[in-house]
Structures
1.
Amino acid sequence: MQIEVAGIRKAYSRKKVLTDISFSMEAGSCAAILGSNGSGKSTLLSVLAGVRRADGGSFFYRGTDLLRHPGQIPKVLGYVPQGDPLMEELNAWDNLRMWYDRETLKRELAAGALGLLGIDGFLKTPVHRMSGGMKKRLSIGCAVVSHPGILVLDEPSAALDPVCKENIRQYLSAYMQEGGSVLMATHDAQDLELCNVCYILRDGTLHPYRYDGDFHKLAEELE
Amino acid sequence: MLEQIFIRVLLLQKRLFKRYGFLFMLVLAPLLAAGVGRLSGEPAGIATIALCVPRGDAAAEEISERLLDGGSVLRYLSCVDEREARLMVESGEADAAWIFSEDLSEQIEELAERRRVRPVVTVVERKDSVALTLGREILSSAIYPSFSYAVYAGYVRDELGLAQMTDGELRQVYDRVAVEGSLFQMVYSDGTPGETEDFTYVQAPLRGILAVWFTFAGLAAALYFMRDEERGVYGRIPVTRRLSTAYLAGAVFLVDAVAVLLLSCKLAGVFTDWKREVISCAVFTACVLAFSNVLRLLCRTPRRMSGLLLPLLAATLALCPVFLNLQHFRAGKLLLPPWYYLQSIHNTRYLYEMAVYTVILVLTSAVLQRLQCRTA
Amino acid sequence: MKRTAAYFLAQLKRAARLLPGQILADLTVCVCAGAFVCLLIAQGTVSAAGTRYRIGMVGDLSDSYLGFGIAALQEMDDSRFMVELVPMSEQEAEEAFLRGELYAVVRVPEGLMESIVCGENDRLITYTASQGQQGLGTMVMGEITDIASTLVTCSQSAIYAMQRVLADQGRGDEIGWETDKLNLSLIQMVLSRSGFGEVEVLGYGDGLSLELYYFCGAVLLFLLLSGLLNSALFARGNGALFCFLKARGVGAFRQILGEYLVYLLLVLVGLFTLCLPLSFVLERELLGIPEWEGMGAAPFAAFLPLLFPVAAMFASLQFFLFEAAEGIVNGILLQLICGVGMGYLSGYFYPSAFFPEKMRALGEVLPSGAAVRFVQAGALGKVPGSAWVAVFAWLAGFLALTVLVRANTIRRAG
């Protein structure tokens, strides 16, 4: 297995949000985390992304426990939080340039992730003038330029139009074909079609769920 | 790596310059400094004195000239007669009136002959105060040269038995040996002399105001970082390396503020010399950066941090020598970066103390960051 | 109207959540401000309180004339009530000065008296009255040294002139004796120099005492800067919400009205929090305000309603600054520089009478100046119509500007 997560715990003061999170993923696979609002999906993803610290557990990626070596996380994992983590005053190019060098960006725009996401079409647009879809694509772009092995997305399709959703899904398919693993929190039925495996986060633990295309059944399950 | 840091600094800077509110805030400080610096040259005083000098009396005119040319901390308003002077005091237009006797020259000569001090000026005051006590001393010192000359002339004529000497002769001898200049010189703790006469007390608090503003610019930078952090802007940087990022982002913010601080000091007329100012500002910047990061880590949320601002401002204004120099609460002063900065301009000891305090703050922030990493 | 009221209630609930934190911060400010005002008044009325400035004397104090001079100043001169001269070693003085126990350190150079006796005056007495850059205190010290210098040099001139006359007359043998006699006469006159003026104290007239002036200044400064305390309320302003409200019929004006009223309530809560410790202090007459002497907190209770219009005006100013500043961070810095700058120009820190005419005029025109005029007139019994007009004109002006900025925000977000 490329990714092995075991026994992750996290509590805010006395409130236990994650009690025992364990799962594994193959390279090139996609896992969805489902759960009702406030169940701890974002907390789990931010713990895996190194934004929050876990109270215990391990997160092995190719034999390295990333929770013990948090400095390695940005090199192997791209994280896109729910809100767009962009600097509103700067344009798309500046936001990308903040994290990557010029040559890499040019290469990626010409024939890489940024080109696939269509970011070259709005490079000079300031973030505060961008649509929601543009912002989301740019946020993903900021996360994937360094070709991380894992992509962690927190509700990537929320409030996007169908064309934009499709663009993102196409990119994610291409990303997985190149061997990347995607872990996403989502409530979108079409996103789920992309996933090999689904988990429902309930009472701080993950429960495997087999999504068969019946969204009503899923909604009942989540209730 | 270094190139990337440089690019980040540039982009963070570009980002700030895209905010008109930030630019407006930067422009306001030098505007205030330049305005006050310019206006400070106009006549002003800690007490206003209505001066009623009888016309045609040589001694009165001489004394009034001495008062008006003295560059004093008092402000003088001329008035025609005693009635007007009293009215000015009663109405609050003046704090006191100095009404000279109509026959001042004669009175001084008479008193000098007897070598006794008797009232030659009526001092009308609204209420006794430190400023007016000082004012009376200034008045005495303005009268004293005329009086001491009269004592000398009287002494020569009466005690030495040289009544035949004319006024002209006596004056000629006196002027030949007269001692001039001050016996005192104000120096700072580092031995440098005090400012020139152009420096007025109106300008004096400007450096303090700017230092407080700069400290709050540091706190604002920390708040800015906290809000960015909440939005996940720095999500790509692991929590363990977040502190250095906070220092970098804060430093970018403060680089602009420090340029404005130096410029404003220059415009306000409180600037000393480049080397001293730049070194003090550099250490002050580091200190403010570390101080705001410690507060950021202690407060943890922008809401708590903004709740802290007013108490902190009150403490800073009360304890740092901005408007007044209180000789109490030294322990509290030691916690505030502007206190060190304001003292360090003329005393390198405080520069070293500020550097030590900065190191303590940096270490504290590192410890707090580690603790926060565990609970993040 | 119903929707405006609903929006107001929603904002009120939001404000209620911030209230405990705000009251805590208010109380902290009260303690700081209380200490500040007490110390300010204590320093401003040093002579009345009988406090003396301690001045450390270091250097060559061995000369007997100098010793006599210091003793005379300490025993016979009027300055003894204000100044205490303490001979000490350089190190002791430096440490005491650093600890804040000395107001100034005066260094007497070697051979000072010889230099004075010869009339050369080439040895300067240096003094240090400030750790940092000079301020009002050091300038006052400068005045005092100028006075001392004038008294010494004029006495010197008189003595040297007398000596020259004697020498010119060929009576050089009398110089020593006559010098001592004239010297004693002059010293006697220097010591009784306060007798040059006959002092007549009128009382307060129609102005404020320094204590009441600073009291008004401190309360106004609190109100002026309370925007920093209430900044949390502006932490989540967003264009989408404003657009939504506009679509629901709550336009820019109604939005501002609803938010402003809640904001004003918070400011007033802050003011009432400030009033509690102030009433306690005033009841016990700890501030020593002469106009309110023997009346406890009653005059303050009568004075308090006068602060409401001013609080409303300052709240509108703060509200405008936050709205115009695009974001809480710039808003805070803008509040600070405007608050401290305007407070300084309008005489909240030093009496405005200290300032040059043009600066005073500028200070009076500003909103902070309108507030101080209003409150001071109120403290003296009657607020003139022009003061009311000025306060309400600023209030309306700031609210109008805020509505314009909000309308623009809605237009841009939409």
2.
Amino acid sequence: MQDAVLAMLAKEPSHGYDLRARLRQSLGPLGESMNPGQIYVTLARLEKAGLVICERAGGLPERPERKVYALTPAGQQRVTAWLAEVGWPKPDLAEFHLKLAAAASARLADPVELIAAQRRELLRRLREAQHAALAEPAGAGAGLLLEGVVLRLQADLRWLDACERVWSKVDDEVEGG
Amino acid sequence: MGSIVLVARLVLADLRRHKAQAAMLLLAVTVATATMALGLSVRDVSEALYEQTRAATAGPDVVALSGDTGPAVASALASLADAPEVVAHHGPYRVVYADLTARGLSSNVVVHGFADKPGAVNRPLVTSGRWVRSGGTVLERGFATALGVGAGDRVTIAGRSYPVVGIAVTAATSVYPGAAQIGPGGGPTDYSGLAWMTRSDARKLASSRDLPVTMALDLKLRDPAATETFSDAHRDSAVRINFRSWQFTAQQDMGILKHSQPILVVGSYLISFLAITGVAALAAGRAAEQTRRAGLLKAVGAAPGLIATVLLTEYLALALAGDALGLVVARLTAPVIAGPTASRIGDVAGPTAATVATATVLAVAVAVLSTLRPTLRALRTATVTALTATAHQPRHRPWITALSALLPTPLLLGLRLTARRPGRAVLQACSTATTVIAIVALLTIHAQTERGYGLDGSAALPNLRGEHDRHLMLAVAILLVALAVVNTITFTWTTAMEARANMAIARTLGATPGQITAGLSTAQLLPSLPGAIVGVPLGTGLLSLFAARNAVDAPSSWLLGAALATLLATAAFTALPARLAARRPVAQALSAEG
Amino acid sequence: MNVSGAAVRACGLVKTHGQGQSRVRAVDEVDLEVPQGQMLAVMGPSGCGKSTLLHLLGGLERPTGGEVWVAGRRIDTMSERALARLRRRSVGFIFQAFHLVEELSAAENVELPALLAGRSRRQARRRASLLLERVGLAERARHLPSQLSGGQRQRVAVARALVNDPLMVLADEPTGNLDTAATLDVLRIFEELRSAGQTFVIVTHDERVAATADRLVSMRDGMFVDDTWLAGSHARGLGGLIGLEG
């Protein structure tokens, strides 16, 4: 989030309000739930870190007293570094995997039930994302992001299917043996 | 050598997979060649039978007949018997014109007065009973068969009862009912049977009832072929004498077969035509498979020639087998077909080389014509496309849509769903037209009135030639109709199989099995309509080529009825396979396609 | 219309294939009720019996046991003819393999069920062009299926399924043969229809298609193992999907 806000400032100094509007435009429906204050919290953190500076600008008649944010040289450097970065968020599957193992070994819960519950949850999310995606015109920026979300969820659901296959077999063996 | 083995193996594999189809081709070719061989050999067979009867009965080379009696005639005949060309003679003998009644049937009869010991020439061959003796009569076999009389029965000749002591055949007269070779006083003849009596019985018969009598003399010439020369040399201006050569009598035997030959030969053409349409439809149904196989063989390096060889070998092998079978059938049935009377004896030799050759050409033509298209297509199709070939590429036929728009909804749907191959529609039309031609011919022949062989043209003794024609025509018509039925069922079934995906789809959309059946039927019935309409004039036209001058046309109500009945029957026969096809479960048909 | 408002209802539904030793229970004691306006997805691995279930609900196959009610009428005992009539008016089918009539143009394909249902040719034509426009294929109406892409063909099939305003649409792997873009096109149409209150039963193994539905049942070996309500509950909000916090 911080990096994205910095990169948006690289074009030109902007009001917090503009930044928020631009973010929401890129994120489409996903940005709707964004807390209105969140952008200011982020800007405050960046200012504290010396990456942006805040200038008071003479407000327009109808919008007086607006703060305009601009990048510092350190901020510039950080943006360049961010663009060159190839880091990728790691899917956090280990936790769920360990949850199943723990539940099974300690007989705390039926792993297959856990998987089913998880599956339902992911399907609900998928449905939301899917509906949002279908509502977007094809090929638009926000639609593309939603497509990514849908595909990730789909991948997760398939993994859950694989989990279910394996764990129900384990169950059978326990019951059978 | 290897390729011959390969071809044989592929052909056998194919035959095993398509038994019904192979059987149909075999059967159709058998019927066609048998009919044609019969048509071509009736003349030969008739001649052969005459020859054998002539040999067995010491048939005369020339029969001299005089319409009058009296001393002038006697001396003229005597001088003939003494002519230098004559090596042997029999007679002169009386020919008495009488009527004969047996088992309630009456007929004209000519009674020959013969010695009780037959002479050197014209020795009738007794086939049952014994030769004439005083008070008893011998009947000619053809005549006796028509009357249903055997040795030991009694017949009434000119009001007097005689026992039939024997049955015999002779080559001196034409087959029944042509025994009277000239009429009384040299006048015209009527249909007559032949009976023999002793000379004195014949004389008594003639004098007691004052019956007309003519005289006959059987002659054996030094040169049997020189009958013409003999007749010309001995024409006497004073006494009128008619000469009947053995060649003439043999020719007269053919009279009864006058219509048999065209019925059989034209019939065989029509049968072949139906065979071609039916087998062509089946072959087209297999075209996709053949095309795929051709592609497969090409892919493994076989030359296009090999593929053509396999395809043609299979059909040719079947056609030639059918040809052989047909010739055997013709050989076995020839005596019945070529000798409708019992007036001749003898065995039939096999068909002549020319007949065999013609029948074989016909069989090969059926095989080649019915498979020409798929073979050519298989050869033309490129290997890769052939391997992925589906049944056939769908084509949009807006005219079908336009045509179907005129019909009630179920028929409209049927046509849109099933009318895939206009070629097959043409075949169906041809098939129907051929059926109607056969039925028109049958009806027209039945509409003819001919003079019966009984006394004064009574039909109590039926006209054997007419009967024979009708029987032959009926047989040919039955064969044609049977083939047409098989064709119609084949066409509908092939269409149903090709359209099964569409029909399954239509059923998911809510088409009832009844609608599907009606649709399939319609797709076959529509082309039958023009076929039936064209068939009537074609049939009458074809017949007019062979008909006698006094022939009558069948009533037009009969012809109209025939066309309608053919259409109704077609509807019934298409509904059968259509209904079977429509009854298949939808889900199964769908998954087979999907 | 029946009192309960169920578009389709099945109880104790059993379908066995084969005989003797090789007898398989494709559908095993299934109870199901789909209220009108609901979009139900049936998920499961291939061979779990979900296609058979769909065929049973649409009257394409007859159950070995149990009952099926469509629009308040019991259909498992109906004659073939009555079933066909019911399908015409009440059921629209969509298949994975499209199952268009290859010899007929897109418009003619869409017209077919309308004509079967006894509409006049003009009505059928008008309705077909309306629906083709709705699925975005107005300019392709005169094309043959073989001249259309997979997605376009499936959209023609959707239009055809809708031509008689069916009580319910039964779809069997509707996107099974489609790429992502074409899948989205079809799902977008489904979503539109769903919001308009069209009842759907969709059989699929694609989570994405299943997620369009209001309700999801999972099938294993001919039985339902899970029945999940997907609609409603925007508990987390869309933002939660991408972790905008921080």
3.
Amino acid sequence: MDIVETHSSGRDAALLPRPFQKWFAEKGWQPRAHQLELLSRSTSGENMLLIAPTGAGKTLAGFLPSLTDLTRRGKIPPGSAFTGIHTLYISPLKALAVDIERNLMKPVSEMGLEISIENRTGDTPQAKRQRQKLNPPDILLTTPEQVALLLANKEAERFFKDLKYVVLDELHSLVTSKRGHLLSLGLARIRKHAPHMRTIGLSATVSDPMDLQRWLVPQSAVEGEHPALPAGLVHVTGGAAPDITIMRTEDRIPWSGHVSTYAIPEVYEEIRRHKTTLIFVNTRFQAELLFQTLWTINEDNLPIALHHGSLDAGQRRKVEAAMAANRLRAVVATSTLDLGMDWGDVDLVVHVGAPKGASRLAQRIGRSNHRMDEPSKAILVPANRFEVMECQAALDANYLGAQDTPPVGEGALDVLAQHVLGMACAEPFDPVELYDEITSASPYANLSWEMFERIVDFVATGGYALRSYERYAKIRKTKDGRWRVSNPAVAQQYRLNLGTIVEATELNVRLVKRNAKGTVGRGGMSLGKVEEYFLEQLVQGDTFLFAGKVLRFEGIRENECLVSNAFSLDPKIPAYAGGKFPLSTYLADQVRGMLADPDRWGVLPDQVRDWLNIQRERSMLPARDELLIETFPRGKRFFMIAYCFEGRLAHQTLGMLLTRRLERAGAHPLGFVATDYSLAIWGLNDIGAMVRSGRLSLSDLFDEDMLGDDLEAWLDESYMLKRTFRNCAVISGLIERRHPGKEKTGRQVTVSTDLIYDVLRSHEPDHILLEATRRDAASGLLDLARLGDMLARIRGHITHRDLDRVSPLAVPIMLEIGKEPVPGKAHDAVLQEAADELIAEALG
Amino acid sequence: MRYAGLEDVELMHRLALARTISGGMAATGAEEIVVNGVLAVCDPLGGLYLPETGTLVVSDLHLEKGAAFARRGMMLPPYDTIATLNILSAVITRYDPKVVISLGDNFHDRKGSEHLPADLRSLITAMARGRDWIWINGNHDPDGTVDLPGTCTDELFHGGLVFRHEPSLISGKGEIAGHLHPSATVRRREKSVRRPCFASDGARLLMPAFGVLAGGLDLRHRAMHGLFDRDALVAHLLGRDRIYSVRYGNLIG
């Protein structure tokens, strides 16, 4: 049901035990209608989903059923038989589990309830974890990984048998990832230990609540049997409409790039005008740069802090505590603060860079002002001209309440392999029983028996057609038909490898001095961390942008990357970082719509309007469903720009496929670059002339059949699949996770997953791990579905403009060529120099 | 934009090239050099042929690497041995050598040769028929091989050269060694390509790793320091179907 937020009548409050009524009364509060509705339906046995904006008292609502039940139960007398946990709370973030403990303890102690609440995360000391197993708290606050660890234990049944409630926080963000897949399998197992357990999902607004409602209940494994009812829904709407604006600046809005340095003085002014400001950016490099720049103009010495995932955990906790105590005026943060951290009196959210998705923006804005009846206040700061339109589209969507959260996908096979091994570590499993259990988890509801058998086979011996590893099997089938682990070392290995997040290995970057002879010294300033795969392609003398400087790569010593100052403005090696999230389909469509409709340009800043007007004169602006392709010469090369607006990943895939086709057509393509908005390909031959003369047909070039043979051929030699393969290999347990700091230095002792991939592909191309890799890549890195949709949409709607020079709309992507800096850390000043010449040419 | 060119691409080429040769379509693409006065032919499949003595040298086969990992619970594909032996068979077909020297780390671990599946064992036996086969012991397999044709030894003097697994730190004159898996990166304009290579300064030669899962170590790595006269050092890189010889100083354009 939908509930427009109201306060409840006193009669409903009778659902609450006396201490609760007293506590609410003392505070002068009323329990809210949705809190009571959730309480009554949960207590009567329903699985429930609560969708509510932040500030609606979601956390308390989620815990009321278990707090009231525990209050009625009372403290367990000492000397009673072992009692397992009563309530399990699962959050995607460690910090959130810690935060909730703080927030929950307060009412519990004020009401004088005898309820024990503890958290358990990767940071919990071994002794405490051990004690928790022997003497579990009533309420355990934890993460999906810890749940998997607890379930893979021989004591799991004892620990979970008394479980009444599982509270799943930020469910919308969990379910779409591999962590969500792992958790869904864990829930299926928990239900076996505690058949009467009820789930309570807490979520922000999503596009399709039914996905989550199904996720929360067991799916029927037996054909013909009635499917389980989806979880009940309490949907809190209402709350005051947010007050969102787009920052206007006197300064010039940049043509490209991702860092809004131009607007920093204005951002600083806003910080001064507000009590506490949360500043969101999309990548940690943007966070670093923005933070540093703010401090260079922080004349009032305002307490401004930084919060992102690469910072030391201790430092992050300090920032969170200072924030909660209202000691900070501003925090620059990445998605580490996206999720329901409940703190302080934030009265302004500034979003720097485009939000990339309407729902993401809504959630981030929800950070400001936790009382839902007052409007949240937010300012969007676009980093470039396309982002101005994107911000406008997101703003419109926010008022319309449009949602673009991704759908819950099919469960990943590598996660399933990890889970199967975990279940064997817990106790020997009967394959039919385990299959029924797994298919009761909604992401795996469609898993076939054959696929399940292949996974079990993979876990046991690698699942190869050449059955040569039987004697080394990790799990074996016993006489009674159950599978058990071969030896305790297997369980040990499982615990070390558990989890679905595979961090890219990063090396510390240290600035050293080169002497006259060209040898480099030791010591020097540490500049930050860079991903190893990027460094792998560098040789000594290469220059690249990092930490706002052009650096010269000197080499790798132990686990550090040594660099020196390059004293140059022109880095040789480009890298492709950009925003972390690709543009959502919904926003892309909105931006296309805005571009096509000059009547809607009134809200845009003059500079952006002028830019679009000149584009209309020089070339054209495509209609909403039209694909505009421009060709023009520049320097000694010929360019083709396709304005697809389908996000960077889909454009990258398209770029790979189009270059193959252009190669065949004799256009001699040399390279391409992709942004969220367009794709640029350049080559030695005049693509425009080829189209004019009929030697090249654009509709053939963009035909959907590129997703057939061309895709297959490209996948065969693509390194991108190799990176996906590496993740699958780690998650599925094929190779061991690297534990930072524990690797041997010097000679490589590990084996290259790239080589494994090649050997496997040439000898067993339909191996299950290759299949898992393809599935992953199709939905992730390659964004094939989106590319396919676009190719279908634009069929018959391609418009070609053959120009004699670069067009205004092409300028942003032209500036990205060879200039996009190393992982996000743009230094727009460097870009500017290269930019000016190009802009003059386009507008002159 | 670079979207290809690391050494793993080369592996696919080697596997394909080996198939072509086994199919009878011999291409050469080999490069003749002189090491310590002895004529040597660097083959793009990764073997070194010494025509004066009819000797074929291969190094760091790392056979049964997949199985070695499987013994420790990591079920790597069991196809590395057959893939490596197929390439070896192709290079033997090409030169029909009187002597084959496998320069150490023949198997990835001590148990490798003992547990070698029978069909793979008979492949080696067939290849060794009618020739002398020398297994030089490596650090991965110091105990020699079990139940395979040929002789095991730590070191061999033969035809004016000395064959050992690890390059000597005392004198490299006339030495053919393996162990380090040399590879080199060539950079021209925006493209860089890394490939396994033969590395020689005319006095000593380091062999590329022959095994398909062996991987490589860049010539600029400090483990290579002091082994060569860098002014005379040439990297003979394994290309798609030929050897590319590049002076050390010219690797980076």
